Predict the 3D structure of the following.
Amino acid sequence: MKWLVYLSGEIHSDWRSTIREGIERAKLPVELAAPVTDHEASDNCGVSILGAEEKDFWKDHKGAGVNAVRTRTMLEKADVVVVRFGEQYRQWNAAFDAGYAAALGKRLIILHPPEHTHALKEVDAAADAVAETPEQVVEILKYVTTKE
């Protein structure tokens, strides 16, 4: 069986690459999917495709809708959802993805530094596993996809 793992969350560090490289090194039966991680493209997709807006609210509304086509489709198809909360930005979209994945009954791995434990206690409580490093995520995926 090939597992589909959706990598949600912050887009300002190389955590996805670390997981991808670990999966490739271990030759795991895992396919990865992710949202659009080009911040500018993601922010502007709605107005680029559907036309300009005068107010930021409507610009963001259009972009969120267009991005949701990909995000919700991938969340619904995923066998496992990994949601990364980074250190630098408030990631409301990551929290939404975690909640949506939990509501869908998806297996959920939350990834964040230990100093976010208190702030993310409700998100962590909905998770199947909580990791602090991308390498731990790879080890979880190695365990669940290859152990008999």
